[in-house]
Write a structure and sequence with these properties.
Blueprint: H1 2-20, H2 28-33, E1 38-46, H3 48-51, H4 55-72, E2 77-82, E3 92-98, H5 101-113, E4 120-129, H6 141-147, E5 156-164, H7 166-170, H8 173-187, E6 194-200, E7 209-215, H9 218-228, E8 237-240, E9 245-250, H10 252-260
Antiparallel strand pairs: 1-3, 1-4, 2-3, 2-9, 5-7, 5-8, 5-9, 6-7
Helix pairs in contact: 4-5, 4-10
Length: 261
């Protein structure tokens, strides 16, 4: 009788856990697609002394770092990128999306508190906000239809901050609309192969926009930027890049593996 009760108790506990389902995680799709979401780009350099630690110690440190990333995915969408080998600004990048900027701050504070984090130097920190399209509603219907076609993502990612001059902001909306239509038409040949996302940074950082790109064809990104440099709107760029970040998209496991070698 006692054995039957124990078996029944264990069975009910297991059934209860199954009914609870997996641990809650943030709605990544929503955070990456809706307006009103904060985007933070944080890059880090790894101290040379940490690299000289034995592999077992480094792996332990990296596992703790991974644990912090996974724990904060309850509220945040966190993407990781390997910059080492393609950028001299930093070794890796964390792109974080949140509905509350303080949640991103707490995540980064927790990362820096780990043994691995204590061996990191913050290289770049950029903050922005996603918003509804400002100019697209005024575009011709044919152009808007072409923009609805999906863009391919890829293993390469680039981040370019932009600051406009005062003259740009003083222009009437109608004049900026005309120039942004020209900008969009110039970018259209690369719409399918270069995925783009825009963040507004005025008041949150030292520039006005953060532009984020994903592609499987770096040459298309190169040609896209060249095409955009020739339109009238580009003449109002007071700052373009500085820094420009280039890397590859990695899972946190892949990032841990790269640094644990």
């Amino acid at each position: 009788m006692l054995r039957e009760w124990k078996f029944g108790s264990v069975f009910m506990c297991v059934l209860g856990l199954l009914m609870l389902g997996p641990a809650h995680t943030a709605d990544r799709e929503k955070l990456l697609s809706e307006p009103g979401v904060y985007g933070t780009f944080a890059t880090f350099q790894i101290d040379d002394d940490w690299r000289r630690l034995d592999q077992k110690t480094r792996q332990t440190h990296l596992n703790e770092f991974k644990g912090v990333v996974e724990r904060h995915r309850e509220k945040l969408a966190i993407d990781t990128y390997l910059l080492r080998g393609l950028s001299d600004h930093a070794d890796f990048l964390l792109r974080v999306h949140s509905t509350e900027l303080k949640d991103t701050q707490q995540f980064l504070v927790d990362v820096m508190a780990t043994p691995f984090g204590q061996s990191l130097k913050s290289a770049t920190m950029m903050n922005g906000l996603t918003k509804k399209a400002n100019y697209v509603p005024g575009f011709p219907e044919a152009l808007k239809a072409e923009l609805k076609a999906p863009s391919e993502s890829g293993p390469y990612a680039a981040v370019i901050p932009i600051r406009k001059d005062a003259e740009w902001w003083a222009l009437p909306h109608e004049q900026r609309l005309v120039m942004m239509q020209e900008h969009t038409e110039a970018a259209l040949p690369y719409h399918k192969t270069v995925k783009r996302k825009l963040y507004h940074s005025t008041g949150l950082d030292d520039f006005d926009f953060i532009t984020y790109f994903e592609t499987a064809k770096p040459e298309d990104l190169h040609n896209l930027i060249l095409a955009l440099s020739k339109v009238k709107e580009a003449h109002h760029n007071r700052r373009f890049g500085h820094p420009t970040l280039l890397g590859t998209i990695k899972t946190v496991d892949q990032l841990v593996e790269a640094f644990g070698q």
